[in-house]
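Our preliminary data section would be incomplete without showing what the modeling component actually yields. Below, a chain of 303 amino acids is followed by its predicted structure, encoded as C-alpha cells that our downstream tools consume directly.
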Amino acid sequence: MASSALMLTAAIVTALAAAAGCFLARGTTAVPAAAWAVVAAIALAGDAAARAAGWVTEPSAAAATRLVVAALAVCPAASLLGAKRPQHGVWQFIVATLAGVLMLPAVSAVLVRPGSMPDVHMLERGLLGVLVVVGWLNFAATAHGPAATAVAGGQLALLWPVLSGGFDPAGVAGWLDPAGGIAVAGGAVLAVGQSLRRATLPSPSGRGAVAAIDPAFIGLRETLGAAWTLRIAERFNAVAVSRGWPCRLGFAGLDLTDGAAGGPWERDAVRCCRSILRRFVTSAWLERQGGMRLAPPAGPREG
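Predicted structure:
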C-alpha cells in the first residue's frame, strides 16, 4: 500500500538520522539513547515493510507488530533517564528489560494464543504515553524543542492503536501512520541539522568562567535535555554556595553577580563544573566544546 511505502521511507530516514545522532553524540552518555532510536526506527521500517509486502494481513498480527514498535519507541527516552557514569552502561539492561516487559502481550498472543489480539493492560498503555511525554518534556525548553515536539507527536500517532486500546492498526494506517512516520522523520532530521550547525560554530572566545563553562554546559543541555542539565546545575550551585562563589549555574548558563567577573574563584568554579560534567562526557568531547579552560590573563601593554 502507498501508506505503508510512505511510512517505510520515513522509517528509513529516521534510522539514518538516528545513526547520525550516534556520531554527533559521541563522547557522551547519550549515545545509547541514539542507538535505541536506531533500533526503534528499524523496527518501524520492518513493520511498514511487512505491511507493504502483504505479510501482515491479520489484525492480530498487525497489533502484535505495532506493540513491538511501541515498546522500542519509548526506549530512547528511558535510556536518557540513566545517562550518568558509571551506571549508564548497566542501565541499558534495565531499558532492554522494560522493552521486553512491554512486548510480553504481543509475545503471549503470538506463541500462546495464536490469532488472538494482544491483551495490553491499561497501566501499560498509560506507561507508554507517559514515557513519550517525558521524552518530549526533556527537550521542550531546549533548542531541540520543535524537533522534540514533532517526534513526540509522531510517536503518539504511531502508538495510537496501542494507546487507545482499540488495536485496529489497519483502520488508521491510511492516514495516521504516514502522518506519524513523517512527523518523526522530520523531527529527527531537524534535530540532526541543528546539531550539525552547532558543531560547525567557531570556538568560543573571551575570558572568564562564563566563556569557559557555558559552551560545554549548553552543549550538554542540547544533548541530554533538561533533566540532567538541571541536576548538574543543582550540584554546581551547592558547591558554589558552600564556597562563597559569586555565581550560579542556571538553565541558560553561568550567571555572575554584578562586578564579580575575575578573581581566584573562577579557576575553582571551572574545575568543579568540569568534574561534574565528566560524569556524562569524555575529555575529547569537552575539547570539542572549547576545553573548559580559562584564557590566560592579558599581559601588560607595551609602550
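Confidence is low (pLDDT under 50) at residues 299-303. The chain has 13 helices and two strands. Preliminary results of this kind motivate Aim 1 of the renewal.
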